[in-house]
Amino acid sequence: MSSDTTRATDTTDSAAFWENHYAGVDPQWGTRPNAVLAEVVTALAPEPGSGGGGRALDLGCGHGGDALWLASLGWDVTAVDVSATALERVAAGADAAGLTDRVHPTRHDLARSFPDGAYGLVTASYFHTPVEIPREQVLRRAAEAVAPGGLLVLVEHASLAPWSWRDGHEDVTFPGPDDVLASLRLGDGDGWLTERCHAPERTATGPGGETATVTDNVIAVRRVRHA
Description:
Helix content: 25-40%
CATH topology: Rossmann fold
Number of strands: 8
Distance between the termini: 41 Å
């Protein structure tokens, strides 16, 4: 996928792909928090701060593992996905965990619309799709949604796992973490502090229990409060 294409696509393209995807996925897959995101948030935003009123925004929430975990820490989470099926499962998970007052499943095709407001924490874990969207523009909009003192955390694929829907495509390439950070166009120290920008390896577990060594881009930037 081109990461910054502006090809006009029918808004149903993303919905159709991801509805089909979730129809074939175990509803329990992705209901635990992403380990990389959890480590970063625990280190850099261990509890809801005053910036953004304790509100978090989870983009491409899937089955809600990250959103539910953040809500369990006290964040008021807007969980966004294009798939109605995924959001129904997030709502069910929130109900089962007694978190319905802090988890708000919200449907957006982020190529076309974006949640309003400012947030103390904005996250996007593996925000990749085979449907062409203006991905860099969406991530810039994510940065704009961070309140002063708040944090933007991006965890992205930097390699393919054997179970990926892109596995077998030899032309797949990923930008490095510095390239991802540069694409946000935050400016050189202009109101932002870079907390993390690296590409660590980890052992990942697939939906069938298989494991593989993968690499992630991890970018965490904080909007600096002005005096």
